[in-house]
Amino acid sequence: MVAKNSVLQHFNKSLTLACMLIAVSTFNYGFDNAGFNTTQAMDGFQQQFGRFNPTTGRYFLPPSWLSLFNSLNYIGFGAGVMVGSLVSGRYGRRMCMFSMSCYALITATIAITSTTREQILAARVLNYVYVGMELAVVPVFQSEIVPAPVRGLAVGSYQFSLMFGSLIVNCVCRGTSTLEGNTAWRIPIGLFYVVPTIVLSLVWFIPESPRWLLTKDRVDEAKAAFYKFREGCVSDEEIAAEFEALQLALRLEPEQGKYMELFQGVNKKRTAIVVAMNFFQQATGQAFASTYGTIFIKGLGTINPFNMSIVMSVINLTLVSTGLFLNDRIGRRPLLFIGANIQIAAILTMGGLGTVSNPTDGHKIAIVAMLIVFSAGFVFAWAPLTYVVTTEVSALRLRDASQRTASMVNVLMNFAVNFSLPYLLYAPYAALGSKVGFIFGSIAVCAVVFTFFCVPECKGRTLEQVDRMFIEGVPLRHFGTHQITDFSDERAMEKGELGVEVQAVEKV
Fold first, then answer.
1. Residue 59, φ and ψ in degrees, nearest 5
2. What residue segments make up the domains of the chain, in order of their start?
3. Integer angstrom CA distances of residue 282 from 227, 287, 303, 374, 413
4. What is the pLDDT averaged over residues 258-281?
5. Which of 329, 380, 419, 499 is the most buried (most CB within 10 A)?
6. Sequence-separated (6 or more) residues with CB below 8 Å from residue 357
7. DSSP states of 464-499 as a string?
8. How far apart are CA 108 and CA 114, in angstroms?
């Protein structure tokens, strides 16, 4: 028996299986992200792809190549976002997931057979086309099939799945890190085959997005899919009313919008929020912990980096789960405030520790601790909620274009930060080390200001209600408390029963 106010009351068998399969797809992002980021700290990986330093008697990865290895992949990521958005919009969410999974099996083969720097670099770039397609379809698919009260939980599970995938591959990397030769890094890369095989085998057993089907005028199929996602959770009358509200919302905005509409009228405000959320998610320096954390900790020489990668993954998974649980209860804005302030405190403290001229082991351990706290603050709020806010504020008929724009900003910032970090961290370049925290801490302060003035609270709102509040010009800071007319009144307005002519009026 499911409690009346339980999260589980919103999930029937079809919706649960669909959300689980969509979330499992994201495991491979975690496998790729943590897999490459951890294996690059392995002796076997450095012997295969690095250079020998006669002074230290050890192999190392040159900062210039490390910069390319951890940034050029975002070129593939950007291409994947574009392709995924187009495939998802034209052929459906399921077809996008199926095609990207087939493609991932090819890139996994290229990666696991790599023997040269050029091949492993090409493999990572090509594999990120898959990751980009995933980002283009997963948050959109999730937001379109779940009820409003659990939308934050469902869409935010994107980050949970990424973290869970990272934990799995980090545990595997810890186990293989003591092996000699290429076996140490090839075993973790072999995990890249698992998730795509599962997804392409099962994706056709879940219903298509009802919203997408309605945009293609496939009303009967949309109704059947919608009932599968809702039956058993609410009454048939409530299902019919919600489906009618969805039809009405799409009917008021019948055609798929043009890309330039993102920058016109009220959509300028929505696009600015989407762009800023994705800018701050990456510009505050999460790549320092997620991409370069293991190799940075190895360079400090005090703590086993592979043990710390597991510790960081466990903490991050716990906190992202907590954030997902809380965001549909206390809202998006409070969590974004808390997360950003944790990031600020940790990264500035780490920067301060980096100013010590002759750091002791205690100083180095404290730097590692602050890096972990910084990462925890990020995954608690900004990591999952960026995707939630991005999908919520997008106009219904511009959702694919808006998601594409969000992802491209995310890609560009990921590229910029990942490309710059080796030059900022290591000699013979800037050699800032942990003092790089002063740069990222300053940007995080700007993120707090942006959140206060510009992020609307959409907790508990349907996507159609959010759309209406933007069109009606409701101030962003009042979204959480604004009283909105329900769709039964809208239907009456449309039929002329309230004596009011329906007009689409945009307010900025």
1. -85, 150
2. 7-206+253-468
3. 38, 7, 27, 13, 6
4. 91
5. 380
6. none
7. HHHHHHHHTT--GGGTTT-----HHHHHHHHHTTTS
8. 10
Whether 214 and 222 have beta carbons less than 8 Å apart is answered as yes
Between 396 and 372, residue with greater pLDDT: 372
Sign of CA dihedral 464, 84, 154, 385: negative
* Alpha helices per DSSP H over 41-92: 43-49, 63-69, 73-91
Helix (H) or strand (E) holding 415, with range, is: helix 399-425
Calculate the CA 317 to chain-centre distance: 14
456-499 pLDDT, tens digit each: 998 888 888 888 899 888 998 888 888 876 554 444 444 433 33
Q: What pLDDT is recorded for position 5?
A: 57
Of 115, 122, 447, nearest to 278 (Cα)? 447
List beta partners, residue 58.
53
- Residue 488, judged by CB atoms within 10 A of its CB (0-12, 13-18, 19+), counts as exposed
pLDDT for 463: 80
Name the token pair of 184. 């140490």
pLDDT, mean over the chain: 87
**What values do phi and psi take at 62, rounded to 5?**
-60, 140
- pLDDT confidence band for 503 (50 / 70 / 90): very low
CA atoms in the 13 A half-sphere facing the CB of 225:
22
Question: Torsions phi, psi of 356, nearest 5?
Answer: -70, 125
In 3D space, the residue among 28, 24, 48, 31 whose CA is nearest the CA of residue 188 turns out to be 31
Residue 76 CA to residue 469 CA, distance in Å, equals: 36
Q: Which one, of 400, 158, 398, lies nearest residue 281 by Cα?
A: 158
Buried b / exposed e across 146-163, counting CB within 10 Å, b at 16+?
bbbbbbbbbbbbbbbbbb
Phi-psi region of 385 (alpha: psi -120 to 50; beta: other; left: phi over 0): alpha
Interatomic CA distance for residues 418 and 380, integer angstroms: 21
Closest CA to 210 of 504, 417, 437, 14: 14
Q: How far apart are CA 24 and CA 35, in angstroms?
A: 16
User: What percent of the chain stands above pLDDT 70?
Assistant: 93
| CATH of 7-206+253-468 among 1.20.1250.20, 1.10.540.10, 3.40.50.300, 3.30.70.260 | 1.20.1250.20
Burial class (CB in 10 A: 0-12, 13-18, 19+), 8: exposed
